[in-house]
Amino acid sequence: GCHSFTGIEPKFEVVKSIDCNQLPYFPIMEHTELKFDLGTMNGHQIGIFHNFFNLNGPQEHALYYITKLAKALGASTYIQTFSSGAYEATSYPNVSLVEDIIPIFEKPVRTPVLCRKPFDLSAAQLSAFSHCILASYHGPEFPTPHESNGIHKCGAQQITLGSVKGLLLANALGLKPYGVADGAYKGTLGTDPVNDKLDVVLQSCRNASKDVFSVVSAILSSVQSTSNGASLSFTENPQHKAIQWNDCQPERQNEQED
Fold first, then answer.
1. Which of 211, 81, 94, 106 has its CA nearest to residue 157?
2. What confidence tens digit (pLDDT) does each residue in 209-235 have?
3. CA-based angle 201:205:209, to the nearest 5?
4. Contact (Cβ atoms closer than 8 angstroms) between residue 17 and residue 37
């Protein structure tokens, strides 16, 4: 929701831009400006979901849709970037590859079976980047200082308001998952009254875009291109639109929040 790669080289060439309001039954909820761009970069065919509404990013139901769509389109690799707070960092942003996750506020996804397959960060192109253990904290509010310290004691090196379940889902579907956490602000944000302001945090995450992109670019350079040159198309169906917040029955809204 915060990282923009516009104007950063190598350039992403958009071939087809799809308004996610037109994706059949996509749980767009409040992310009404969401786009799905298909294009190319450095010989790779890439699909990018962008314009998420807030720091939380995609919810659980959207992650199911996105990862299954990626698999259906023939993707080999899944990359998700996270706005995150870093513990014990000496400078910010502290952009890191996600080595492992602590889905402390997530519903289980048939664990521990999925967790037996660790994230593979062994590619030579990734050796220069630091690693982190990333924990989720479901917003929209930031954790209190005591909550944040408790999550840190669980082993987290960074904390995000979003869901980390996308990495598990991609793993389960046979995609190779990579997470990139920006470490743009302090993990113990509630103890910092000067910078404990949403606009400051948002700007810090946006400012981390270039550093985040350097890691994403390195990940792409480690992936063998398997493009067959096929052209992808999309046809709108006026009878099947995305699901917005006001479209859900109250009990469905509660399930989405749960």
1. 94
2. 999 999 999 999 999 876 655 677 788
3. 165
4. yes
